[in-house]
Amino acid sequence: MVEYAILYFLLFRGFFLTSRTQTPSRKALLYSLVLSVLYAISDEIHQTFVPTREGKIWDVVIDAFGISIMYIYMKKDVFRFKRIV
After folding, report:
1. What pLDDT digit, counting tens, does each position of 21-30 carry?
2. pTM of this structure
3. Domain map (residue ranges) of the chain
4. Torsion angle, alpha carbons of 12, 15, 21, 22, to 10
5. I need a surface site. Which of 14, 47, 52, 65 has the fewest CB within 10 A?
6. What is the dihedral of CA 57, 66, 16, 23, to 10 degrees?
7. Would you list the DSSP string of 9-60?
8. For residue 25, what are the contacts with CB-CB under 8 A and spacing of at least 6?
């Protein structure tokens, strides 16, 4: 869960730094959210092909929960993160 929250933050940072605006946009928040959840889904699909692992929907839900916590936190305090990125 923590790893996916960090992934979300790093994706947001990447989208924000490549944008031409000085303020974080909703698009950067949403694109990061969508890509993080898609990566969590693809990771679980990949695990179904590994012999000693199994992909579970519940793991995607847990990962998405970590992503959504970071999304809510960043959406609330996005201007404070402008100094970090």
Report:
1. 666 678 888 9
2. 0.83
3. 2-81
4. 40
5. 52
6. 130
7. HHHHHHHHHHSS-SS--HHHHHHHHHHHHHHHHHHHHHHTTSTT----HHHH
8. 16, 19
